[in-house]
Amino acid sequence: MHRFYSDPEVTRYLDWVSHSVENSRFFIRWFKEGYRKKNALRWGVTPRDGDQVIGTIGYHDFYLHSRAELSYELTRSRWNQGIVSEALEVVIPFGFQALNLHRIQAWTFPENSTSIHLLQKFRFQEEGLMREYVHLWHKKTWADVRMFARLRSD
To answer: Model-level pTM?
Structure first.
């Protein structure tokens, strides 16, 4: 897991980075703690031809179990192979059906055209630009994001 979280191309569009094995362990603990507290749910993404984790996908920041934030990342060598699309085909219905979410939202940086296209493909509607919405701790700055959402009724 550390391999893709330490790749600057993979983490370019994340609000955090992991430059060490210990930082990766911290995020694994964070994922586990979110699951234990029932405010996050994260899955490892593995290829069909193996069991190595090549990315993660999941929900976090549950709000009264009616909405959650969707996020995902994938190791660079597996980009543009439809892997995240395949995962979203399962994860989105799971959110609405099993988690009983009313709203799934996702933000992305304005320049991340790949993620924007992916969200639009899955019928997420753009809701606007959120000015200085995320703090990039590793860059010590604030960043704008584009907010997308999909409702159960969409």
So the answer is: 0.83
